[in-house]
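Continued from yesterday's entry.
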Amino acid sequence: MTRNGTIVTQEMEIRTILKEELSRLMENAVAPEDIPDDRALFDVGEEGSESLGLDSLDALELMMSIEQHYGVTVPTDVDFKEVPTVNDMVAYVMRLVEGVAAR
């Protein structure tokens, strides 16, 4: 498999695991496959914006789950509002994983 094929496969795996974890955090109210890639994860208080409604405790659990699944360290000062959607979170985790692989 080419490097690009490996990256696509890794991205799909991260997206799947992330959505499964998000579904668990939402007490399975939404099936993983029904979580939109572009939906805001956290309520940022903007009028008219829909989010999955995660809070700071959920962010902490998500951070710990990412660390366990991928053997990476998520910086303690990460602002999850800067990775507001599933797409953004997948890209963020990909960068973390690539940083570990480069060592």
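--- second protein ---
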Amino acid sequence: MPEIMGLQFCFDEHGREIEILDVTPVARNEYRIEETPLFHPGLSLGDIIRVKEKQGILHYIETVHKSRYRKYAWLLSQEAAESREIKDFIRRVAGQQGRWERIFSGVLIVHLPAAANLDAEGEMAAILQRFGL
């Protein structure tokens, strides 16, 4: 089984938006993204992309297969991000075979399988309300 590796990806034609992403190789010039890219909002954890290499940088060409995860994202205060409620919520996400990421400390991104039995939006609405967000 191929291992996850960090590689440089470019998402614009001018080479200005370069991001290092954790990916898993799945075929020649194709990778499964193992985290949410910042420079390409249309891509998500689990997507399989095709790339072309130029001068040691992989340039995004197209998405071969979209992830089967449903993606949710919320902006949290520091207090909310560090709360017991969020810790319990991400434990429930993991219990549904989901994955989560926190970017810049306050952006929580949750990826749930389509068959997950968790009302992520409802639970987070209650948490956000508790913290006045």
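The mean pLDDT is 93. The beta strands are 5-10, 18-27, 30-33, 48-54, 57-65, 69-75, 99-103, 107-113. Will compare against the first tomorrow.
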